Each structure stands twice: as structure tokens, then as C-alpha cells.
Predict the 3D structure of the following.
Amino acid sequence: MSEAGYTLYECKSEEEIQAFRKYYEKREEVCIFGDLSNTITLKNAKKTIDEISEKYSNPFIIAIDSALSGTNNIGKVFTVKSGICLGSGFGNSGLIIGNMGIKGIVAQDTYNNRMRYVVLQNTSLNLIIEMANYTAKGIYNVINV
């Protein structure tokens, strides 16, 4: 992760969690673009960003992505105080998306671009769904103050 330019933060206290919290006004709109069935990829991200820009003035975007790391991080979810660079795990200098990011570590990094694809294709779907639910609950709890 650090080789891709990310600084990861594992929030261990309420104070650290508050540092990432954005308070919403009542009735403020929260919209979701992309999910496990309709993912936003490097190929369709520009179109999605254009769509968001047309609909919303100064949106706060939380980008969520899976990542590979050491075995001690598998199953952990980290926040990133910046956007996420799509495609960076495969050596692409992709599009940076979001005002902040959430990274879920789903498998061990092989540090080999060809093997990374294989590793991701063989990652436990159950783990991904559990992490997605965990992340969704966390976001829900933060914005429903």
C-alpha cells in the first residue's frame, strides 16, 4: 500500500474515528454510485465522475476499494486521508477518485502484477461481503449522528 503512495490509518480510538467524521445536515442527500454488482472501474470511472459533477455541486466523495497487503492485514479496513488511485495495484497510473478513501485488505500481495489478478480472482467472496457489510455499517453510523 505504501508503495502506491497511500498512508493508511487504522482508527483505534473514538478520537481517531472523529477525525474522519463528516457531519451532515438533516435531509442532506447521501448517494451511492457503484456496488459489488455494478463496480466502478478504471474504464468507467471518468463517466461516473462526470455524472456526479453534473448532478452535485462540491460533493464529498468517499471512494471504497479492495487492496492487497501483508497477511497480518487481511480482513482489516483502513481509511485513507485522500482519494484512491484506481489501477495502482496493477501498475497503472490511474485516475484518483474521492476526497477520502476506504481500503479493505482482501488478500496477500504477491508483488507480481500477473499473480495479483489471480489472487483477486480467488479471494473469498464471503470475506468481501463481510467487509462490505462492515464498511457500510461504519459509514452509516458515522453519517447518522
Remarks:
- The chain has four helices and six strands.
